[in-house]
Automatic annotation (TrEMBL):
GO terms for molecular function: carbohydrate derivative binding; glutamine-fructose-6-phosphate transaminase (isomerizing) activity. The gene is glmS. One of its GO terms (biological process) is UDP-N-acetylglucosamine metabolic process. This is Glutamine--fructose-6-phosphate aminotransferase [isomerizing]. Catalyzes the first step in hexosamine metabolism, converting fructose-6P into glucosamine-6P using glutamine as a nitrogen source. It catalyses: D-fructose 6-phosphate + L-glutamine = D-glucosamine 6-phosphate + L-glutamate. Residues 46-185, 218-359 form the SIS domain.
Length: 369
């Protein structure tokens, strides 16, 4: 087992550090930025269906559901098709309205999640086209779908999903770009810019991983907290949910992810000098709004751990801790902003003596409902 861990103390840490490679592997052969070329065989088969889809419904569970939320922003923005993101367990039991013009995208690392599989069967019975995004080749979900694309993250052993998430987001980004360019909603210059930027992501993830030592120091200060809030807006809202999920899964600290603006409708009541608030405040279209949200937290003496874009000076002047990540397009930011959150949860869990790779009560693959 120690050989399999490749020198890392845990599979989770190894998998976090594998992300430059797993992201690259998930886009490899599917894109040539130079010639604006995108290809994904699973989509090609159903290209007309995708281009003319009424709606895209994404079904998934856990971290895969968070990747689905990122895809909602991507597909609606780039391809202008309405997207709904559903917990597979809710979708399958609520008599959803579906027809032949709908496409259902099922996302699953293991390809074995019982609720996701049942949601697929239900959608099939209503005539929808099912597209799968799985990591495990030949898995039940991969076999149950009409077409699909694999994420090439390699085996993920740690129960808390890390590299599978970024691989899913990578594949979903490619899908949004393909549909957007076919539908004419994503103009060629913008498509080109995004492709060129996507190619730089593996090396920017590498840079973000260099923050490890800095994050260990922050983890030392917060390892004993009882609660933690994660805030983000836009593309970073699903990342806030994912950051909170990672922390609760492996460290057993109660954590909540919220869209930053929703804080005033509830979570703000929890904020006092004991409450750490992780804010994803990268430079994007909602940046100014997030600055106000940080001020609201500081006014109530909350401790702010901010993830910011390199070179930012506004948020660092307000926050208690600042983690700087490289600049990128807001469409691609989740691939970078999630990295420090994975590392923060990992180190806090290790410092608390938790079983990081096999947290209590959780399973890697949930094959029963
Ligand atoms: C379990 C795992 C999570 C995973 C979720 C969905 O809860 O512990 O890490 O995100 O299932 O799994 P899937 O294999 O369908 O992505």
């Amino acid at each position: 087992e120690s050989i399999e861990k490749g020198g890392y103390e845990h599979f989770m840490l190894k998998e976090i550090f594998e992300q430059p490679r797993s992201i690259l592997d998930s886009m490899r052969g599917r894109m040539i930025a130079e010639s604006n070329h995108l290809m994904m065989s699973g989509i090609r088969e159903f290209e007309n269906k995708f281009v003319n889809a009424n709606r895209i419904i994404i079904v998934a569970c856990g971290t895969s559901w968070h990747a689905g939320l990122v895809a909602e922003y991507l597909i609606e923005d780039l391809a202008r098709i309405p997207v709904e993101v559903e917990y597979a367990s809710e979708f399958r039991y609520r008599n959803p309205i579906l027809n032949e013009k709908d496409i259902v995208i099922a996302i699953s690392q293991s390809g074995e999640t019982a609720d996701t599989l049942a949601a697929i069967e239900l959608a099939k019975s209503k005539g929808a086209t099912i597209f799968g995004i799985c990591n495990v080749v030949g898995s039940s979900i991969a076999r149950a779908t009409d077409a699909g694309a694999y994420t090439h993250a390699g085996p993920e052993i740690g129960v808390a999903s890390t590299k599978a998430f970024t691989a899913q987001v990578t594949v979903l980004t490619l899908i949004a770009m393909i549909i957007g360019s076919k539908r004419g909603t994503l103009e060629t210059t913008k498509l080109h810019e995004l492709m060129v930027e996507l190619e730089t992501i593996p090396s920017k993830v590498e840079e973000a991983l260099q923050l490890n030592d800095q994050i260990i120091k922050i983890a030392e200060q917060y390892k004993d907290v009882a609660n933690c809030i994660y805030l983000g807006r836009g593309y970073n809202f699903p990342v806030a949910l994912e950051g909170a999920l990672k922390l609760k899964e492996i460290s057993y600290i109660h954590a909540e992810g919220y869209p930053a603006a929703e804080m005033k409708h509830g979570p703000i009541a929890l904020i006092d000098e004991q409450m750490p608030v992780v804010v994803i405040a990268t430079k994007d279209s909602s940046y100014e709004k997030v600055v106000s949200n940080v001020q609201e937290v500081k006014a109530r003496k909350g401790k702010v751990i901010a993830i910011v874009t390199e070179g930012d000076t506004t948020i660092p002047a307000m926050a208690d801790h600042v983690i700087e990540i490289p600049e990128t397009s807001e469409h691609l930011m989740p691939l970078l902003s999630v990295i420090p959150l994975q590392l923060l949860s990992y180190h806090i869990a290790v410092m608390r003596g938790c079983n990081v790779d096999q947290p209590r009560n959780l399973a890697k693959s949930v094959t029963v409902e």
